[in-house]
Amino acid sequence: MERTVSEVSRLAGVSVRTLRHYDAIGLLPPGRVATNGYRYYGRPELLRLQRILLLRELGVPLPSIARILDEQDDEVTALQGHREQLLQERKRLDVMLGAIERTIAGLSGDDTVTDDEFFSGLSEARTRLREDLARRFGEATAEGFEKAVRETDGWTREDYERLGDEGRRLLLRMAAARDRGVRPDSPEGFELIEQHHQGVLELWPATPSSYYALGDLLVENADQRAIIEMVDRDLPEWLAAGVRAYAIQRLGFSRNTEETV
């Protein structure tokens, strides 16, 4: 049975625009295109879309997905491999989620979280963030993060809760702006991003390059994304776009003359 692009969009929970983009880059061409220009998708295309979405959930970039799918002919073997990856990812996320929930609960002033649990969750989150920074940007950036963390060695739980409250209020204002259709790179959007940038500078002497790179981290790092999604599930991408635009337009970052992050 063939389905139109609108039917596939509803069935898979992805936008028509996304499906057209996948077609444009050769990742998911329709089974056929009618003389009137309508795209139709059959079972092979739906199976391929399922695999694309699975790999996207695992954080695989689109160019890599195209290569993986083109190299794998056996659908069953490929899906079994994806299943194993998802099981491993679920185990990792279960452990991570517990630590994140303890940290968020502590930052929210949850009295049921003991001080030991609060600082344990905070330490675990910092360790994962340091590892992510080292993997993405190298040891120099990770060491810079460690130095910034040492500056907060004397902080109490109340200090962290105050910081968490301030950050949450800013995220709520960003979410409200996004709901009103405010673009992250608009003057109003930049007013909010500027406050975010100042908050980052209080904890970490971020260069224009590292602040730009923070845009990717906010979306791709599970801990950072989870904190933002607690306010609004659609906010990470808006904030990330604003961070990148702010780094370019207000901080003078240029991707052609990238300094060390």
Task: Report what the structure shows.
By secondary structure, the chain is mainly α. The protein folds into three domains: 3-70, Multidrug-efflux Transporter Regulator, Chain: A, Domain 2; 74-111; 115-251, no CATH class. It is 71% helix and 3% strand. It is built from twelve helices and three strands, in the order E-H-H-E-E-H-H-H-H-H-H-H-H-H-H. The protein has helices spanning 5-12, 16-24, 43-57, 62-71, 75-107, 115-137, 139-150, 157-179, 187-203, 208-220, 222-229, 235-249, and strands at residues 3-4, 32-33, 39-41. The chain has a three-stranded antiparallel β-sheet. A hairpin with a 5-residue loop joins strand 2 and strand 3 (39-41). Helix 10 (208-220) packs antiparallel against helix 12. The longest helix has 33 residues, at 75-107. The N and C termini lie far apart (51 Å). The model has no long low-confidence stretch (mean pLDDT 82).
Task: Produce the secondary structure layout.
Layout: E1 3-4, H1 5-12, H2 16-24, E2 32-33, E3 39-41, H3 43-57, H4 62-71, H5 75-107, H6 115-137, H7 139-150, H8 157-179, H9 187-203, H10 208-220, H11 222-229, H12 235-249
Antiparallel strand pairs: 1-3, 2-3
Helix pairs in contact: 3-4, 3-5, 5-6, 5-11, 6-7, 8-9, 9-12, 10-11, 10-12
**Main sheet: strands, sense, barrel:** 3 strands, antiparallel
Q: Roughly what is the average pLDDT, rounded to an integer?
A: 82
How would you describe the shape?
globular
Fraction of helical residues: over 70%
Overall structural class, as computed from helix and strand content, comes to mainly alpha
- Total of helices: 12
Number of domains: 3
Low-confidence stretches: none
Q: Which H/E pattern describes the elements?
A: EHHEEHHHHHHHHHH
Would you count the extended β strands for me?
A: 3
Report the sheet-strand fraction.
Answer: under 5%
Strand order of the largest sheet: 1-3-2
Radius of gyration (CA) equals: 21 Å
